[in-house]
Design a protein that fits this description.
The chain is mainly α. Among the domains are: 110 residues, Serine Threonine Protein Phosphatase 5, Tetratricopeptide repeat; 79 residues. It is 78% helix and 0% strand. The chain is built from eleven helices and no strands. The protein is globular. It starts with 6 loop residues before the first helix and ends with a helix.
């Protein structure tokens, strides 16, 4: 049987085509993987924030597991740092929601410590990522409260969050989430502080929250990357509501106004809807 003379040429062409595909695949695949991982992360982030507002600690834990199972491209440092941030966010907000539900303090401390580890990982990947510092500062502040009976441990925690807070305020003084945790630091007052000084600290904290609220509203239009932290507006309204209720001279009308504005943005927010707003309404009754 005589073979067609064109067969060797056809074989060479097929070999070249296959070779081109083989050479090309490693170039395309990582880029596609990065895009897919980013899209999947963005979907999980939306669910994390919803579970946080709903106060669903178990769903938050499951979403952390989903993030942990993602196949992340090792060359995408930006994506890796943001995934670590949202993993930290899960445990941070599990702890915060645990306070509202009377969760055991040992579990709260464990969640806060796990959050700090993730935030530290995010910072090591991207040292300019100040939002990872924000989460860590808030967790350290909360641990300080839980450990206040242990003066040595508490002081060590204070030193850590004060250093981070100072550095972060220099780096990003107009980050609304940073101002949210800064306001909490300004509000706190030692038990032996004079009344006038307490009121002054409260006024300073409220001013910081209001500044943060303006910045948060302006930021909403600028942040386009769905895996970047862009929350803050509702949280600052919540803190203004809480501060208006708990200040030395309470203003329940302002407190209710801020709480209802927060619920306009996040109607399913368990803490504001089911805990804070009823407290405000009760306090405002004659």
């Amino acid at each position: 049987m005589v073979m067609p003379r064109c067969l060797p040429a056809m074989q060479r062409i097929q070999t070249l085509i296959v070779g081109a595909v083989i050479v090309h695949l490693p170039i395309v695949s990582p880029a596609q993987s990065s895009v897919d991982a980013r899209d999947r992360t963005a979907q999980i982030v939306v669910r994390i924030q919803h579970a946080d507002y709903a106060g669903d600690r178990e769903v938050l834990l499951r979403l952390h597991e989903e993030l942990s199972k993602l196949k992340l491209p090792t060359q995408d440092v930006h994506l890796l740092s943001r995934v670590r941030y949202w993993q930290g966010f899960v445990f941070w907000r599990r702890a915060f929601n645990g306070f509202n539900d009377g969760t055991d303090r040992t579990m709260l401390e464990r969640d806060l410590e796990r959050a700090i580890t993730h935030f530290e990982d995010a910072t090591s990947l991207d040292p300019r990522f100040i939002d990872a510092n924000v989460g860590q500062i808030s967790c350290l502040q909360t641990l300080t409260f839980l450990k206040q009976a242990d003066s040595v441990r508490a002081q060590a925690l204070v030193s850590r969050f004060v250093r981070l807070l100072t550095e972060s305020l220099v780096s990003q003084p107009e980050n609304p989430r940073l101002l949210w945790v800064y306001g909490a630091s300004q509000w706190w007052a030692p038990a032996d502080l004079a009344k006038a000084q307490v009121i002054e600290r409260q006024e300073t904290a409220v001013a910081t929250y209001k500044k943060g609220l303006v910045l948060a509203r302006a930021q909403t239009e600028k942040v386009r990357d769905s895996i970047e932290p862009a929350w803050g507006e509702a949280e600052l309204m919540m803190s203004l509501a809480w501060a208006s209720l708990n200040r030395t001279n309470p203003d329940t009308h302002a407190a209710e106004r801020f709480a209802r504005q927060a619920l306009t943005l996040v109607p399913h927010w368990h803490y504001v809807r089911d805990i804070l707003l009823p407290q405000i309404i009760r306090a405002g009754r004659p």
